[in-house]
């Protein structure tokens, strides 16, 4: 398998292990950099706690026996809102599908790998594309062994007005939601949509395989009318962002209901991690702690960003 780095990982300062509930083994290891702490200043401890709460939400909902290791950084000012970069590993479609089949644990998984499912036996690119997963996702799918090496970097703009805990203050953004959006991208929620990784053109990620414009019609690109589907486009679950139009992330959700995985983050509101968000992470390789998440656990975070050939950025609205 080939391994590529989308961006350079920042220097590290102060790692910790979190997220080890009794029923699960998905462990997040954040390394908060010195610039994270200095740029957030008096809010650094609150920002760290908020990030950890976002990661713990995913640990509580998925049981994969792996470590996801993330460098968490910040820059001064507001030129960045939230962005992520990830290490990627390439594989063949056949090998990827085999791991998805062996990892199936839920009804959606069974649908996706079955007759009439989105995880078709034939490579949807006709063998012309290169398939990639993030290193965190590769561990969840058992394409690679668990490790404590870094899986990606998340960066925040410390000058943005954030609420770190409690009710969202007027004219601020919910930091926990922004963190959840970014963490999920390192987990594998990023689309390549036929773009270029390093020098490898015609690149796709596992999430692209679940994009459809209609029944039996995959939408591997980044344009309008692409939806998340597990049953080969028969049911179009949720609309992806039109990245061809706005140049942002192809596998964030289009604007609509407040949601942590939307392309844009609303101000003064909570954009929670929805049941559909968790279904998506399940489809791309993660194992639910409970087949149906408890609705009360879903209100947590806010978000926004962009990708391709490097960092993904979250956008304010």
What is the compact description of this entry?
This protein has 8 helices and 16 strands.
Protein described:
There is one protein chain. With 317 residues, this protein is of the alpha/beta class. The protein has helices spanning 34-40, 44-61, 93-102, 107-113, 135-140, 175-186, 243-246, 275-283; strands at residues 3-5, 27-32, 67-75, 82-91, 130-134, 152-157, 162-163, 173-174, 195-197, 200-205, 211-214, 217-218, 227-228, 238-239, 264-265, 312-316. Strands 1, 2, 3, 4, 5, 6, 9, 10, 15 and 16 form a ten-stranded mixed sheet that branches. A four-stranded antiparallel sheet has the order 12-11-13-14, with no helix packed on it. Helix 2 (44-61) crosses helix 6 (175-186).
Keywords:
10-stranded mixed β-sheet, 317 residues, single chain, alpha/beta, globular, disordered N terminus, 4-stranded antiparallel β-sheet
Topology record:
Elements: E1 3-5, E2 27-32, H1 34-40, H2 44-61, E3 67-75, E4 82-91, H3 93-102, H4 107-113, E5 130-134, H5 135-140, E6 152-157, E7 162-163, E8 173-174, H6 175-186, E9 195-197, E10 200-205, E11 211-214, E12 217-218, E13 227-228, E14 238-239, H7 243-246, E15 264-265, H8 275-283, E16 312-316
Parallel strand pairs: 2-3, 3-6, 5-10, 7-8, 15-16
Antiparallel strand pairs: 1-4, 4-5, 4-6, 4-16, 9-10, 11-12, 11-13, 13-14
Helix pairs in contact: 2-6
């Amino acid at each position: 398998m080939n391994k590529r780095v989308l961006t350079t990982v920042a220097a590290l300062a102060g790692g910790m292990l979190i997220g080890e509930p009794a029923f699960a083994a998905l462990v997040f290891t954040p390394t908060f950099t010195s610039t994270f702490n200095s740029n957030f200043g008096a809010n650094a401890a609150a920002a760290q706690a908020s990030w950890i709460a976002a990661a713990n939400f995913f640990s509580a909902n998925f049981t994969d026996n792996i470590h996801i290791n993330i460098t968490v950084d910040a820059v001064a000012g507001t030129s960045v809102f939230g962005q992520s970069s990830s290490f990627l590993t390439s594989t063949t479609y056949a090998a990827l599908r085999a791991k998805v089949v062996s990892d199936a644990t839920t009804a959606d998984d069974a649908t996706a790998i079955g007759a009439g499912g989105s995880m078709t036996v034939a490579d949807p690119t006709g063998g012309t594309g290169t398939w990639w997963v993030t290193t965190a996702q590769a561990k969840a799918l058992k394409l690679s062994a668990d490790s404590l090496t870094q899986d990606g970097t998340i960066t925040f703009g410390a000058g943005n007005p954030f609420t770190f805990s409690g009710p969202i203050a007027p004219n601020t953004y919910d930091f926990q939601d922004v963190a959840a959006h970014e963490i999920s991208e390192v987990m594998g929620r990023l689309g390549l949509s036929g773009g270029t990784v390093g020098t490898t053109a015609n690149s796709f990620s596992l999430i692209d395989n679940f994009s459809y414009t209609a029944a039996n019609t995959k939408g591997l690109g980044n344009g309008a009318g692409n939806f998340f589907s597990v049953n080969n486009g028969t049911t179009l679950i949720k609309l992806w962002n039109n990245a061809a139009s706005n140049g942002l992330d192809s596998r964030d959700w289009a604007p609509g209901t407040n949601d942590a995985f939307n392309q844009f983050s609303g101000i003064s509101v909570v954009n929670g991690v929805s049941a559909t968000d968790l279904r998506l992470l399940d489809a791309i390789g993660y194992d639910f702690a409970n087949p149906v998440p408890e609705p009360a656990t879903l209100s947590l975070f806010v978000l926004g960003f962009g990708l391709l050939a490097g960092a993904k950025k979250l956008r304010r609205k």
